[in-house]
Amino acid sequence: MTEARIDWAAHAPRLVDAATADRAWYHAVARELVAPGDRLAVDIGCGGAGMALALARHMTCGRILAVDAEPAIVEAARARIRTEWADPRIRIDVELVDIADTGSLRRTVCGHADLVWASAMVHHLGDQQRAVDALAALLARGGRLALAEGGLPARHLPWDLGVGDPGLELRLHTAEDRWFARIRAALPGSRPMPYGWDEALRRAGLDPATTVTTLSELPPPLPPPQQRAVVNRLANRIGRLRDTGLLTPADLHTWDRLLDPSDLVWLGNRRDVFLLEARSVHVGRRG
Ligand SMILES: C[S@@+](CC[C@H](N)C(=O)[O-])C[C@H]1O[C@@H](n2cnc3c(N)ncnc32)[C@H](O)[C@@H]1O
User: If exposure means fewest CB atoms within 10 Å of the residue's CB, which of 6, 52, 164, 283 is most exposed?
Assistant: First the structure.
């Protein structure tokens, strides 16, 4: 069984690709989140800097601070920003910060933020409520903390693929859920948070707290670049679970066939692959 720990450095190229592929979603969300007069926005656990760049495009002046705990990801985010951002009215900085070190986070942010964004990040911390409290403490009066967490896992495949047992993708979701439970249990200071993200925001003193969920849908047949992206994403998910014992040998064998371009049943050859996914953003406001 592989160690239940994520090597974020190995994910740097994938996070940059995902941030690029999700550009439209980031822009739609940033458009809703940025308020007139916002001067400081912070992207926590920035990955490929998708949101940092989208926020910059929707603010009229000021500064975006993107932070991440992984040096390789900080470098990748800086490189992407150097390539894509040149407007001197908005400065985008990327800094190396582990947000579990709340003192260092406060010193790096240095001032009060109008908007703090954290996507798929807080669930990687042992004490999620403590992290939400620390992020809420960065806000100016009227500032917003937005957490992109949860929703519905992506679906790509028909229930019966004609290869392996039907329900393959549902069993993948179940295996991922169990993998996630292992990852969480192995985090330093891991504590349960037996309530939803909106409640976590309220407990951090942010009221009102609201949730908006958007559906991403690409019906079949997918254009070739999107089909490649879906197949790569599935390959990455299977790779992550390969040595965990959470997928049966029969299901692993089916996935290996579906993900092998030299096999007749390769997913890249199918016309019924699709994308259906729901992503939630929970927003709390400091009164
Ligand atoms: C799943 S990725 C999400 C990246 C990006 N926010 C997105 O939605 O695509 C989680 C990110 O959080 C970063 N991260 C994990 N633990 C962290 C911590 N304690 N402090 C700061 N960043 C952290 C990882 O390096 C990684 O870039």
Answer: 6
Which of 199, 193, 197, 201 minimizes the C-alpha distance to 287? 201
State the pLDDT at residue 147: 98
Instruction: Give the Å distance between the CA of 70 and the centre of ligand 1.
Output: 8
Single-letter residue type at 116:
V
177 domain-assigned: yes
Structurally, the chain folds into a number of domains equal to 1
Span 245-252, average pLDDT: 98
Is residue 2 domain-resident? no
Q: What is the pLDDT of residues 208-226, one digit of tens each?
A: 999 999 999 999 999 998 9
Cα-based angle 98, 103, 106 (whole degrees, multiple of 5): 90
- CATH number of the domain residue 164 falls in: 3.40.50.150
With respect to residue 61, please indicate whether it lies within any of the assigned structural domains: yes
Pocket test for ligand 1, best of 65, 67, 68 (most atoms within 8 A of CB): 68
Domain that holds residue 186: 8-285
State how far the alpha carbon of 63 is from the alpha carbons of 2, 52, 99, 114, in Å.
41, 10, 19, 10
Does some domain include residue 1? no
20 has a pLDDT exceeding 50 = yes
Between the CA of 45 and the centroid of ligand 1 the distance, in Å, is 4
